[in-house]
Amino acid sequence: MTSNDLLDLTGRVALVTGAGQGVGRQIALTLASFGADVVVNDYDETRAESVAAEVRKLGVSSLAAQSDVGDFQRMGEVFDEVKEKWGSVTILVNNAGNRGAGPAPTKQRAFWDQTPSDWEPFIHVNLDGVLNSTRHAMGHMVEAKQGRVITIISDAGRVGEVNGMEVYSGAKAGAAGFTRAMARLGGRFGVTANCVALGATRTPAIEAAIADEEFAKRVLSSYIVRRFGEPDDAANLILFLASDASSWITGQTIPVNGGYSLTM
Q: A single GO BP annotation from the record (predicted)?
C-alpha cells in the first residue's frame, strides 16, 4: 500500500467544529482534498456556508452546520442530520476553541477577582463542546467499528498559561484527559483518540496582536523554529491522524509548535 493509499479518506465522513475560519477551515479543506465528505460546523452560519462551498469545489460533498458546540441538543441534531444524509461520522475534529461562542473577550480580570461567570465562556466551548461532540460521534463510530477523534488543545492545555488564560488552560487540559479516556474506551471498537497541542498559529484571532513587531519578537523568542505556525502545519498532522496511516496511535498529545516544547 502506498503512502497516498494510507492517507486516502474517500468514503469517510468528517465533522470539523469551528471550521468557519483559520485552522478549522484549513483542516476541512485538507481532509476534503484527500476524499472525505466534510461537515463544516461553526457558530457563524455565513462562515460555515462559505467554507462548505469551498469544500464542494474539491469534488466532495459538504454540509454547513451552524451550531454552538456547547449546546448538547443542537449538536445531537447535527449528528442525526448527517447520519440520515451520509451515514456515520467516522472522523471528528474538535477544533472549536475560544473564550466562548463568538468573539473572544479582550480583557480578563486577575484570577483571584474572577467568579464562575468569568470561567463559563472558557469551559463552555473548550471542554463542554468537546464532551458534547465526542459523545454524539462515539455512537456513530462504535456502530461503524471505526473512528478517529482528534482534539485540538493548544499548548495552554499542555503547559498551563497565565495572564487571563488560567481557566482556558484548565479547560484544554480537561479536554486532553477526556480524550485519553476515549482512547481507552474506543480501542476495542476500532476508534482512536488523540490530541494536537498547537503553539502560536497565524489565524484571524491573533493577526492584530502579531502585527506588533515587538510583541511578535517576544513570542517567537520561545520558539526554536522562529516563525508562527500556519494552519497547514496543524491540518497536515490532523490528516495523518484521521487516516489509516495512524491506526496504531492513540491516547497521545502531539505538539505542533516549532520546538516550543524544548524551551519549557
A: monocarboxylic acid metabolic process
